[in-house]
Amino acid sequence: MPPLVRVKHLEKIYDVSGVKTPALRGVDLEVLPGEFTALAGPSGSGKSTLLHLIGGLDHPTSGEVWLSGKRVDQLARTELADLRLRHLGFIFQAYNLIPVLTALENAAFVLELRGVPRREREQRALLALETLGMAEFAARRPNQLSGGQQQRVAVARALAAEPAVILADEPTANLDRKTGEALIEYMKMLNQMQGITFVFSTHDPRLLAHVTRTVELEDGQVKSDSAQAQAQRRDGSSVTSVTF
Ligand SMILES: Nc1ncnc2c1ncn2[C@@H]1O[C@H](COP(=O)(O)OP(=O)(O)OP(=O)(O)O)[C@@H](O)[C@H]1O
Predict the structure, then answer these.
(1) Is 183 among the domain residues?
(2) What is the CATH number of the domain that holds 9?
(3) What range defines the domain where residue 204 resides?
């Protein structure tokens, strides 16, 4: 099975008024369809930067980013927009809701852009809002919702679209316990039933308990990868004796 996400020798150096901060220092990563992968690591290790680059929201300093067989870092604007619309969902801290649309219309927006008929898109958007405890706010506009409620609408928009890959930056941060648990259940359901691939940064032990793989970053490099560790155990190449 070819990887859905492929990152090769990725480097990102932020340059703010001549002050250079290396955020990624040669990251290689492949994510296969159907994975439920966590990016772990301390604050500042490069998790958000990596998610932004995979999603084509920023340009790498060097290296390659591939998504669904396309080279994300070299696509023209319109091609990138099309790739995002059809293949990618984001759950990031900036919610980017459209102020003149209701919560339901916002949650259905990606489906509308894709030409999904009104009835179907509203059903899917409402289901996502319900799961996140937001059905009663479906008719409200973003400025009539709290920050946490706006976050839930943005999450519903990404989930309702059921893209091939969902990239999420700390998706359960800022959510109360009950909503956080409902979101985890919903993400798992989409992963297992629809085969949607998830790559997310998280420190949340409730979410980490469900991952199929953990990639740990440190100082902009991959420090450990549970998938590689498993593969090595399968070959027996790095394990000389196992005792229980
Ligand atoms: N827009 C930016 N401009 C300049 N430096 C940045 C920018 N974004 C991130 N950095 C720096 O790049 C490094 C990696 O940051 P990044 O946000 O990717 O880490 P993170 O692992 O997601 O951290 P956290 O867990 O705190 O969200 C840090 O040193 C950070 O200060």
Answers:
(1) yes
(2) 3.40.50.300
(3) 5-98+164-235
Q: For residue 147, what pLDDT band results from cuts at 50, 70 and 90?
A: confident
- For the chain, the domain total comes to 1
Asked whether residue 148 is assigned to any structural domain, the reply reads no
Above 70 in pLDDT, residue 51?
yes
- Scored b (16 or more CB within 10 A) or e, 67-88 reads bbeeebbebeeeebeebbeeeb
94 CB near ligand 1 (under 6 Å): no
Q: Does residue 147 lie in a domain region?
A: no
Write the pLDDT tens digit of every residue in 159-176.
899 899 999 999 988 888
pLDDT digits (tens, 9 = 90+) for 73-131: 999 989 998 888 888 988 887 778 999 999 999 999 999 999 999 999 999 999 999 98
What distance in Å separates the CA atoms of residue 142 and residue 168, rounded to the nearest whole number? 21
Distance 40 CA to ligand 1 centre (A): 14
Most ligand 1 atoms within 8 A of CB, residue of 14, 39, 53, 93 to mutate? 14
Give ipTM to 2 decimals. Answer: 0.97
188 in a structural domain: yes
Number of the ligand 1 atom closest to the C-alpha atom of 52? 18
CB under 8 Å to 56, separation ≥6 — which residues? 65, 67, 72, 73, 75, 80, 83, 84
The encoded tokens of residue 12 equal 């990102």
Between 147 and 213, residue with greater pLDDT: 213
